[in-house]
TrEMBL record:
Residues of the full protein shown: 338 to 624 of 624
Record-annotated EAL domain positions: 24-277
Protein name per Swiss-Prot or TrEMBL: GGDEF-domain containing protein
Source organism: Allosphingosinicella humi
Length: 287
């Protein structure tokens, strides 16, 4: 009797769980197909020099151009990819695409740095750096225009071998950035041991910088910390001109966000760069 009840209770939950698992399996399958069919794209969002207004870099952001659902953002599929080896294959695709892009930009005389996001799954793989080097060699993409972005939590997990590889890559000219800084927990002394060029302030930190004295104080102190570590500070999620102006005044080096441009397809980005090549009188002088 009790046994029967127990069993019926379990079976109540079963359809839901089965549906979730099925959904996950379907997404995985769809992602594999998307990879095979070439449905992934990169979008590019400019990073602007806070002092001069010139476009110094672009972040490559993954997009899935779904045949029926339109352009899908990473938030809707990356988590599923991260749970399997798919993220490694997608990450490989991103590296190939980024290197090919850099090579095209270089041929077109563009000098913007291209920064891309590295997943924990990719770093777990022992041949990650070897493959990255091979890709750069094959495509003749200039390593000094490439930047790797690691989230704060991934950076904290880098082992000695990974740190050595990163240092070697930096010797060849590539740069390394910490992404989403201030959204999690960082071991600050560990940050000092990392071979780093830039630290990106999380959008959550940047949010209130123009409306709250507290937020401004925190961001200002964090920028000092970043400079003290010998790195440049990059603000992401800059949506308002007021945020832009505060960030410039407190010494942030690079700005990224909708206030300047949303992520764009490659052709659109190249055209956008063309429009922003002129002496950048767009930003008001810092008082
Ligand atoms: P992220 O690396 O921190 O990228 C910044 C995200 O903020 C992007 O979202 C970008 O479109 C968005 N953003 C830019 N400016 C603004 C703004 O002014 N306001 C607001 N509210 N948002 C802004 P996106 O493209 O949806 O990517 C989300 C996340 O997905 C990325 O966060 C990154 O963690 C991950 N991701 C994207 N591409 C890749 C990739 O190629 N590989 C891996 N492993 N992760 C990726
Ligand atoms: Mg990023
Ligand atoms: Mg970020
Ligand atoms: Mg983020």
């Amino acid at each position: 009797d009790a046994k029967a009840k127990g069993r019926s209770r379990v079976s109540l939950y079963r359809p839901e769980m089965a549906a979730a698992v099925e959904q996950k399996i379907m997404t995985e399958k769809a992602l594999r197909q998307a990879l095979a069919r070439g449905e992934f794209e990169l979008a590019f969002q400019p990073q602007i020099c806070a002092r001069t207004g010139s476009v110094l870099a672009a972040e490559a952001l993954l997009r899935w151009n779904h045949p029926t659902e339109g352009m899908r953002l990473p938030g809707s599929f990356i988590a599923v990819a991260e749970e399997s080896s798919l993220m490694v294959d997608i990450g490989d695709w991103v590296i190939d695409a980024a290197a090919a892009t850099l090579q095209r930009w270089r041929a077109a005389g563009m000098t913007q740095r291209l920064t891309f996001n590295v997943s924990p799954r990719q770093l777990e793989r022992p041949d990650f750096f070897k493959r990255l080097r091979e890709t750069l060699a094959h495509t003749c993409a200039p390593p000094w225009l490439l930047e790797l972005e690691f989230t704060e939590s991934l950076a904290m997990k880098c082992d000695e071998a990974a740190l050595c590889e990163l240092a070697a890559l930096r010797e060849e000219g590539a740069s390394v950035a910490i992404d989403d800084f201030g959204s999690g927990y960082s071991n600050l002394s560990r940050l000092n041991d990392m071979p780093l060029d830039r630290i990106k302030l999380d959008q959550g930190l940047v949010q209130g910088v123009d409306v709250s004295d507290g937020a401004r104080t925190i961001v200002s102190a964090v920028i000092h910390l970043i400079h003290g570590l010998g790195c440049e500070a990059v603000a992401e999620g800059v949506e308002r001109t007021e945020q832009r102006d505060v960030l410039r005044a407190i010494g942030c080096d690079l700005l990224q966000g909708f206030a300047f441009a949303e992520p764009m397809g490659e052709a659109e980005f190249v055209a956008w760069i063309g429009d922003h090549m002129l002496p950048p009188a767009r930003l008001p002088r810092i008082a």
